[in-house]
TrEMBL record:
Record-level Gene Ontology MF annotations: 4-carboxymuconolactone decarboxylase activity; peroxiredoxin activity
Domain Carboxymuconolactone decarboxylase-like: start-end pairs: 36-118
Entry keyword annotation includes Transmembrane: no
Top class in the EC scheme: lyase
Name of the protein: 4-carboxymuconolactone decarboxylase
Highest taxon in the source lineage: Bacteria
Enzyme Commission number(s): 4.1.1.44
Native species: Polynucleobacter duraquae
Length: 125
């Protein structure tokens, strides 16, 4: 593990997903899954999210689209929260899911709408 890349990724991960969630993920990691925490923090959150080519808002749009296509509700809820933190509105997220419905399938998009509504309720928006 590259400690500097990990720390940069950890900073970005906290800014997007929220420090409480990220710190709990790291704190609750054990010898089995800590290597995965290190991998995603170093590579996803530093090497990709910190690249200059796309802003965080755009990266959130891409993530919501791909996670909808994969039908991964836990990750979707996390990234809906991150998308709000990165400046997307409920209406922006709605548009992403409507487009995903056509290109990824209606059932996947319906699940994404359900997940987003839960997050919006939790966030009071």
């Amino acid at each position: 593990m590259n400690k500097e890349a990990f720390e940069k990724g950890l900073k970005t991960r906290r800014e997007v997903l929220g420090a409480e969630y990220v710190d709990n993920s790291i704190k609750n990691a054990d010898a089995f899954n800590m290597p995965m925490q290190e991998l995603v923090t170093e590579y996803c959150w530093n090497e990709i999210w910190n690249r200059p080519g796309l802003d965080r808002r755009t990266r959130s749009i891409i993530n919501l689209s791909m996670i909808t296509a994969l039908n991964r509700s836990h990750e979707l809820k996390l990234h809906v929260r991150g998308a709000i933190n990165n400046g997307l509105s409920k209406e922006d997220i709605q548009e992403v899911f409507l487009q995903a419905a056509i290109y990824c399938g209606v059932p996947a998009a319906i699940d994404s709408f359900r997940c987003a509504k839960e997050v919006f309720a939790e966030m009071g928006i």
